[in-house]
Amino acid sequence: MKIDVNVDMGESFGRYILGDDEALMPWVSSANIATGFHAGDPLVMERTIAWAKKYNVAVGAHVGLNDRQGFGRRQINISVEELKSDILYQLGAIDAFLKIHNMKLQHIKPHGILYRMVGEQEIYIDAFLDTVELYNKDLYIMLHTGCEALKRAQKRGLKTAPEILIDLGYDAEGNWILERIKKERSPQEVAARALRAVCDHKIDTVAGDLIPVEGRTICIHGDAPNAVSVAKAVRQALEGAGVELAALDKSM
């Protein structure tokens, strides 16, 4: 059995450090690197890409709303035209750094509230998919398992990476619960959730029930206070159960 483990990275800015990106790299298979809108800057982006290459970690574009103060987690009612141009701008930025490091972009994953906007809100779904299809049909689209955007992407023949967010709460309907500030969670509890999600295809809700879940990738948030400990515990638990960590192209 194989699974991709992805983590949000590259979210520091100037002298302000958020997350220990290099320390996370040995424990994951894919990195969602911030593209400068919700977080990150050019120096941080390139440095994080260099670390990904060093540790053989695949790279995805973690595109967000232009909202640094709110860390991309506040709803902004941008136009469809703004959505398209903002995403293209961010994809072009990260691709430039990947090019000079002889790497390729594996996937695109929206950040924060944009994840919900393009995954579930009718006004944005097709505009998002149109933009990805226009820019690079080979990109995996990483979104929440079962969301409307993934269903439409699959019908279009686009590559998809259904995601399980193992360090966030879920409600009874299977929706993940957005945290404005990332909470610290027990590494052992997150690792147990990862094992259950990958091996038993179930995840617990905030009410304590178990609901079915399927995914090709599981997410750990790099801005959690103890993200490195969580990532290490998850990898060790998965490998201990015979599950191999592999980037998306290698996890088929």
UniProtKB/TrEMBL annotation:
- CDD domains recorded: LamB_YcsF_like
The source's domain of life comes to: Bacteria
Gene3D superfamilies to which the protein is assigned, alphabetical: Glycoside hydrolase/deacetylase
**Per its UniProt record, what Pfam families does this chain match?**
LamB_YcsF (PF03746)
For this protein, the record's SUPFAM superfamilies field holds: Glycoside hydrolase/deacetylase
InterPro entries per UniProt: Glyco_hydro/deAcase_b/a-brl (IPR011330), LamB/YcsF/PxpA-like (IPR005501)
Protein name as it appears in the record: UPF0271 protein
Which organism does this record belong to? Propionispira arboris
